[in-house]
Amino acid sequence: MKHRKITLSEQEIPEKWYNIIADMTNKPLPPLHPGTKEPIGPDALAPLFPMELIKQEVSGEKWIAIPDEVRNIYSIWRPTPLYRAYGLEKALDTPAKIYYKYEGVSPAGSHKPNTSVPQAYYNKQEGIKRITTETGAGQWGSALAFACNHFDIDCEVYMVKLSYNQKPYRKVMMNTWGAKVFPSPSDATEAGRKILAQDPDTTGSLGIAISEAVERAAMNEDTKYALGSVLNHVKLHQTVIGQEAVVQMEKAGDMPDIVIAPFGGGSNFAGLAFPFLRLNFDEGRNIRCIASEPTSCPKLTRGVFRYDFGDTVGMTPLLPMYTLGHNFVPAPIHAGGLRYHGAGVIVSQLLKDKLIEAVAHDNIEVFEAGVTFARTEGIIPAPEATHGIATAIAEAKKCKEEGVSRTILFNLCGHGNFDMKAYEDYFAGNIVRHDLTSEEIKASLAELETPEIE
Amino acid sequence: MKHRKITLSEQEIPEKWYNIIADMTNKPLPPLHPGTKEPIGPDALAPLFPMELIKQEVSGEKWIAIPDEVRNIYSIWRPTPLYRAYGLEKALDTPAKIYYKYEGVSPAGSHKPNTSVPQAYYNKQEGIKRITTETGAGQWGSALAFACNHFDIDCEVYMVKLSYNQKPYRKVMMNTWGAKVFPSPSDATEAGRKILAQDPDTTGSLGIAISEAVERAAMNEDTKYALGSVLNHVKLHQTVIGQEAVVQMEKAGDMPDIVIAPFGGGSNFAGLAFPFLRLNFDEGRNIRCIASEPTSCPKLTRGVFRYDFGDTVGMTPLLPMYTLGHNFVPAPIHAGGLRYHGAGVIVSQLLKDKLIEAVAHDNIEVFEAGVTFARTEGIIPAPEATHGIATAIAEAKKCKEEGVSRTILFNLCGHGNFDMKAYEDYFAGNIVRHDLTSEEIKASLAELETPEIE
């Protein structure tokens, strides 16, 4: 029997998170106050986040200990399996060796609980009674609901009304874990009521949902806000993925030449790639790390490196990021988790410094890749995850063309059980390409008032 | 950190299936020809099943080797994890130790691929080009689609039209793995066309879908039929569950006093329980094995032990089984996998001989148990799986009342990702009890022409 799967015991769940900032020569630039344009300190984040998470957000320490209580919950689904993709290799007739790390085994079905659990934990430690967040398709909202339920913290999720109506099952999942889910805009907040008064029939947006969740946290002592990607502490928590993968690749007697992950705000990419970048830093290795984004939202491949807001309405600090402009509205692709205008600051600096790479795939190519994967490896991937598969397939085909064998590892960041509508649309021929013209990108960026960073 | 999860490496996937018939003092009675009422031999099954599966169906050998090719595909999700349910124990404040084996990690989301994979394998070995089957809610159909896809066999699934329309996502899942799915009754078969001519608006039934799938197999040389429960070879294949669990319980330094599994046709119950019954046979242990069924379909707790048809229309051989009568129509509970009028012959004989036990739970009790489980252990269970949880909770409460600690193990046979509508109904107060009166059961059994077996 071929060895298809490399598993670890729960004793092998990492004991520390890896903070890549410690190893970066060019540290990320500081966030700026939206009004004064001056660098802001950690205190500015205190109304929204518990102090321990703020400390992690600005930490320069290389390793940060994972609390036992967090590792204990991680053990529900961690360590996650790492697979050799024999079926996919055979179908591609490639000399490449392809591996994937599978994060869909978590109760919420993706990598998101890797950070929702520590976020809920640190909030609980500081006596917080309620956590609010926004969610689009529902992956992040359900991960936070799962975590808050464990720590007996109230969870309020503001879910974009369009998704709330179109994807009721993610909402029921959150309810099952005890969370309250509001269609956003809602009448639970001032921001929501104002927008509803102007346009009672609006289907909402992620920007509006963020405003509602942030308002609830800012207005209530016992309430904080949680974010599922972009921020440094979120990326930090996700490094358990790559740390496990390093050990698993060693057990397989192999090491990747290329590491690939889908890219939305950067958290699942960071999770897999940063611990391999550490090997580049510490051991002088030369592992290529590739972020894979949709052509409909190409901030890494076609955006600019500039200070921009994290949210649509401009309430957050200005962050140094690759961006398409905070007013950019991506096409309504099924990979909702990749529809974000900007990239987190660490990943942006790494790309600027050419320490990582980025590629983009169109919507049809990724679904072809997803169906090929489902039929050769058995697991039906989430639409977000198909982007990493598409890059892995492209690299494996290059190996065949060049007649060389390389070892490719990608992050299968979630399963598609809640996304079968996407596959139904694909089989019905209702998936279309969403390629942006240069004019469209230029127009979106023209609204940005900040200069490009040299 | 507490040890929550016991995992095994892929090298520890069992190498043999356990055939409990070899250890039974009272062997199951033979199947009878529906016309002559005489015992039938293996040849009678040849039009529907490949010879290797028929040999397994009638085998008296205690151990049957699992082909390497099957173990290789098993390794996509096997060995499955075994968990200590610390969260549930704490919530129940019970001295009992509760463990569960989790089969929801398979690509199809339940234990069903444990048998669909070997069934597809043996069909492939004998040159079969197409396999047909019926499915209700879609668990079995998607497991067979997954397996056929791997072996490049065409898969035709006749899906009860009501479910086909109500649960489109299971259908899309089957399509993703390349299967053709027909709403049953369909115009692809004589049986379907006849019923459609009589009643064009019928929503179908499992009985009709079986007739269509069987007709396609009987009429075509290169086509066979596959069943997802009830038959001996199906139960045989599922024993990988219990064999792994025995090893995992030993690794946990523990052994169950009570083993529990939900009961539809008997396959997931057999899968977990038979290898523990083997310990009773071989080592003189006294492990109680409890089958858990819905009060709306109580063949084990309120049915009779009698020869009856396996299907609704009376095409199959007569089988010696606990039954509610083959015309029995269970209430439309969400646990579609438990809505079967009879029990497989091996389990029926074991119950008759008091080697196993059975209990029933009402529909509200099982959803309460399911939500309690989701909130304490994190995993949202399939409606079928909630029945085993309800029994485990009842036994853990007994431990508390009696002030004794017992070790309880149950089979969490699938996740609820495709069943969120059921939880939505539960939270909305739309789940109702379905208790049968004695008169209803008597009326259903009155149509049976065969005498009770002494």
From TrEMBL, chains A, B:
State its Enzyme Commission number(s): 4.2.1.20
Which residues, renumbered to this chain, carry the PTM N6-(pyridoxal phosphate)lysine?
K112
Give the pathway annotation: Amino-acid biosynthesis; L-tryptophan biosynthesis; L-tryptophan from chorismate: step 5/5
Q: Which UniProt keywords apply?
A: Amino-acid biosynthesis, Aromatic amino acid biosynthesis, Lyase, Pyridoxal phosphate, Tryptophan biosynthesis
- Provide the Tryptophan synthase beta chain-like PALP domain boundaries: 77-414
Provide the reaction this enzyme catalyses.
Answer: (1S,2R)-1-C-(indol-3-yl)glycerol 3-phosphate + L-serine = D-glyceraldehyde 3-phosphate + L-tryptophan + H2O
Which prosthetic group or cofactor does it need? pyridoxal 5'-phosphate
Tell me the protein family, please.
Answer: Belongs to the TrpB family.
Summarize the protein's role: The beta subunit is responsible for the synthesis of L-tryptophan from indole and L-serine.
The record's HAMAP family line, in alphabetical order, gives: Trp_synth_beta
Subunit text = Tetramer of two alpha and two beta chains.
Q: What name does UniProt use for this protein? A: Tryptophan synthase beta chain
The species is Splendidivirga corallicola
Q: What is the lineage of its organism?
A: Bacteria, Pseudomonadati, Bacteroidota, Cytophagia, Cytophagales
